[in-house]
Each structure stands twice: as C-alpha cells, then as structure tokens.
Amino acid sequence: DCNTHHLPAVPAKIAVPAVALLMAVFKSCPSPFCVLDEVDAALDEGNVGRFTDLIREFSEKTQFIMITHHKRTMACADVLMGITMSEPGISTRMAVRMEDWVQDGGAQKAA
Q: What letter would DSSP give residue 40?
C-alpha cells in the first residue's frame, strides 16, 4: 500500500539507513502525512542536521508530525505542540507557531 509506511524502533547503528529507506519510499510514493516518533533520538548532531534538511525538503508534499525531544529537530518545525505540567497533576496543552515566536522576539529572548 502506497499510503502506509511503518518502520519499527531501530538501534543507533541502523538509524541512518532506516531514515534513508523511509525517505526513499517517500520520494517514490509520497504520502500526505507521516508520523515520526523519536526518529532522531539515535542520530548524532551531523546526522540530525541532514535529517532536518530532508524533513524541510519533503515537507513540500508531506506534513510531518514528529515526536521529539531534540531541540535542533524542534527548530525546523512550523508549529510546536506540547504538554506541560506546571503543577503536579495539572497538564496544560500548548502550541507555538514558530513564525509568530520569531516575530514577537522570542528568538532573541531565548538566545
């Protein structure tokens, strides 16, 4: 099926080939969206940069929903969504549109 692609969790030594395989499949058979769960966790800094470059390139045809803790991967997002727990037992949903954050001076405040 051209619309369903699934790769299981992989150890660090095969993370790069697994991402390359996924992107090759997407190049030949694009999907409207893709959910990636901690795909970048096993990648080193150089490969995270390559990964985010690929995400930007492929995002012209595919919407990526990524679950990540890697700041560099988050930085390539258009919108960040998350859950915070400022008080024990009270979860708060949040969303930040990166374009708005930069325009409001958030990038300078964080630097």
A: G
Predicted TM-score of the model (pTM)? 0.71
The whole-angstrom separation of Cα 35 and Cα 65 is 5
Give the whole-angstrom CA distance, residue 15 versus residue 18: 5
Contact yes or no for 70/48 (Cβ under 8 A): yes
Question: Does residue 66 contact residue 39 with C-beta atoms inside 8 Å?
Answer: yes
Structure tokens, 4: 């369903």
74-108 pLDDT tens trace: 988 889 888 888 889 999 998 888 777 666 665 54
What does the alpha-carbon distance between residue 47 and residue 105 come to, in Å, rounded to a whole number? 29
Amino acid at 31: S
